[in-house]
Amino acid sequence: MPDNELTELLNRAQRGDDDAREAAFARIYAELKRIAAAELRRNPGATLDTTALVHEAWAKLAANYAGTLESRGHYYSLAARAMRQILVDQARRRIADKRGGGERPAELDEATALADARASEVLAIDQALSRLARRDARAARVVEWHFFGGFTFDEIAVELKLSERTVRGDWALARAVLARELGA
Questions:
Q1: Where are the alpha helices (DSSP H) in 43-163?
Q2: 1-5, 23-27, 73-77: least confident range
Q3: More exposed terminus of the chain, fewer Cβ within 10 Å: N or C?
Q4: Longest alpha-carbon distance in the chain
Q5: 107-123 tens-digit pLDDT
Q6: What are the residue ranges spanned by the domains of the chain?
Q7: According to the UniProt entry, where is the signal peptide (predicted)?
Q8: Mean pLDDT rounded to a whole number for the chain
Q9: Long-range contact list for 115-121, CB < 8 A, 24+ apart?
């Protein structure tokens, strides 16, 4: 399906067209699963599986995004951001539980320790990325689309109407800033 047809289908779904919503979800499901799988590979402490993350992101976008989509890439970037937010929220809950917010005491096995460490990493990356976005929104978008969304530099360049070289430069700058902020 050409990008403009998918974009129109997504916009009709956004306006409440149930048939368009079902058709759009069927057409983009595989790509959303690819994005979610990449996201979960980077977050091994997450308790969601790929399907659950896709469905939560789809529901989050349906409930919270009322704007008009500009392109297929615009939708996938929103989906990547929604997945990031879901995983960050999950990490926050995990850390709150670890600090006594839950009803049961934390277990002290290796899996729990790893998941707690990953939750802290996810929060630190999210905070660093938010600070980067205040200084350089485009570089932050490149990180979000590439790292969280699984987009290639060429795909990002097309969506942002930039050269691939410029996108790679933004990526290099963002990585350096984030590494400095994260102490890596």
A1: 50-64, 72-96, 110-135, 137-143, 153-160
A2: 1-5
A3: C
A4: 52
A5: 445 545 555 666 777 78
A6: 3-182
A7: none
A8: 80
A9: 115/44, 115/45, 115/47, 116/45, 117/45, 118/43, 118/44, 118/45, 118/46, 118/91, 119/45, 119/90, 119/91, 119/92, 119/94, 119/95, 120/91, 120/95
